[in-house]
Write a structure and sequence with these properties.
InterPro entries: DGC. The protein is α/β, with parallel strands linked by helices. The chain has one domain (8-132): 3-Layer(aba) Sandwich (Rossmann fold). The chain is built from six helices and four strands, in the order E-H-E-H-H-E-H-E-H-H. The chain has helices at 19-35, 45-49, 53-61, 74-81, 92-98, 112-133, and strands spanning 8-12, 40-42, 64-68, 88-91. It has a four-stranded parallel sheet with strand order 2-1-3-4, sandwiched between helices. Helix 1 packs across helix 6 (112-133).
């Protein structure tokens, strides 16, 4: 008998024009598309801001990981603003602090080091996704 796993929602920052906002988005894409496809689901910040019913239902009914590009925490605050809770919150800069050899640069597209950092961060977050999907705290 297989145990149903929960979907895990990943909500990245929309910090257009900032390297760490781009890192947040690229980390989310890596996590959802390559590392945990089918288990991690992506939604976008503007949908929550406009109170889109499907986006709101997604974050209300599933554990949510936010990845913010700056200390303003817009992704985190947006989840809370619709009455949902954030299971785990991350700041993109903390991934860089843990891997200083991979300095992200670029606004619309990350440099090679930034893309590698996004892949490393997604791998690190995969354990959190697995735990949340299994109903654990992560």
């Amino acid at each position: 008998m297989s145990i149903k796993k929960n979907d895990v929602v990943v909500l990245p920052c929309s910090g257009i024009g900032k390297a760490y906002g781009t890192l947040a988005r690229e980390t989310a894409y890596e996590l959802v598309e390559r590392v945990r496809p089918g288990l991690a689901k992506l939604t976008c910040l503007p949908l929550l801001v406009i109170n889109d019913p499907q986006a709101k239902q997604l974050v209300m009914n599933n554990p949510v990981i936010t990845i913010d590009g700056c200390p303003k925490g817009c992704a985190h605050k947006s989840v809370e603003s619709v009455g949902a809770q954030v299971a785990k919150a991350y700041q993109a800069i903390d991934f860089y602090k843990a891997h200083k050899e991979l300095k992200p640069d670029g606004i619309t597209e990350l440099n090679d080091a930034g893309r590698r950092l996004a892949a490393v961060a997604a791998e690190e977050l995969s354990q959190v996704v697995d735990a949340l999907a299994a109903g654990e705290e992560g």
